[in-house]
Amino acid sequence: MAISSSESLDIRTSDDVVRVRQQVRTRAVEAGLSLVDQTKIITAASELARNALDYAGGGMVLIEMAEEGGRRGVRLTFADQGPGIADIGLALKDGYTTGNGLGLGLSGARRLSNEFSIESKVGEGTKVTIARWK
Amino acid sequence: MDRIPILKLGSALLVTIQVDMHDRLATALEEDLTAKIVATGAKGVLIDISALEIVDSFIGRMLDNIAAVSRILDAVTVVVGMRPAVAITLVELGLSLSGVNTALNVDRGMALIQRRLADAEAVDGNIEQ
Q: A91, A121 in Cβ contact below 8 A?
């Protein structure tokens, strides 16, 4: 896979969540994603950025324009140094939450993406990578 | 802090969301709208989201909350103008907004509120007889 551009943004406040959405939108348009696909990746980014803020007190996102096998897309990696997730299977269940949200953030972001991977260590943090291809 | 304006339109309140809302703004709207329903005795709330490019679970929950609180305060909430891509994404995200009335645009939303009002008055009339 070739990465043609990458940038990272801090997620410290709810204004940063808005900024992440706007930047992901710009890149999704550049990658030539359809309107529905743009909407899906922006929405998934919003969920994951808010998760980083609410559960880890903040984090960062790496936004990459990627090309693989002739198709273009956007890949996002959200990383935080928060408490980590003890049971990832449970965290991916619809409706499960340890906060006061709806429990749809992680499971919803997964459904809205073409690729989804998550790594987490209790006490060290969580890294979620998603991608949406044209 | 910024606030989203709430306009009074006959017996309804009209909110047009035109900015990409950060979370505090969404929470403030919920509180402002609740206060305004009580202050004006409004029977309906129209929320125009045609300018919104996405509705995530936070905004979805805000819409659900507004509808639930309005209902308790005897007002009906109608969300209007949702973009097709937003609707598709919302369902895939897992949110069906089952507690919220929707209409395609402001005109249809207003008609829905007026129909509800007429129905309610007819029921009141029957009880009095």
A: no
Alpha-carbon gap, residue B73 to B65, rounded angstroms: 12
Superfamily for the B6-128 domain = STAS domain (3.30.750.24)
> Distance (Å, rounded) from C-alpha B88 to C-alpha A1?
29
Nearest to A21 among B54, B88, B95 (CB): B54
Pairing between β-strand B76-80 and β-strand B44-48 as defined by DSSP bridges: parallel
User: What is the count of structural domains for chain A?
Assistant: 1
pLDDT over 80 at B129, yes or no: no
Measure in Å the smallest separation between the Cα of A121 and chain B Cα atoms: 25
* Cβ-defined contact of A39 to B92 (cutoff 8 Å): no
A70-83 pLDDT tens trace: 899 999 999 999 99
- pLDDT band for A100, please (50, 70, 90 cuts): confident
Domain range for residue A93?
2-133
Q: Domain with A110 in it: what CATH number? A: 3.30.565.10
Query: Which pLDDT value is given to residue A68?
Result: 87
Indicate yes or no: CB of B57 within 8 angstroms of CB of A35: no
Residue whose structure tokens are 């408490």? A83
Cβ within 8 Å, pair B92-A40: yes
- Among A36, A39, A107, the strongest candidate for a mutation testing the B interface, having the largest count of B CBs within 10 A, is A39
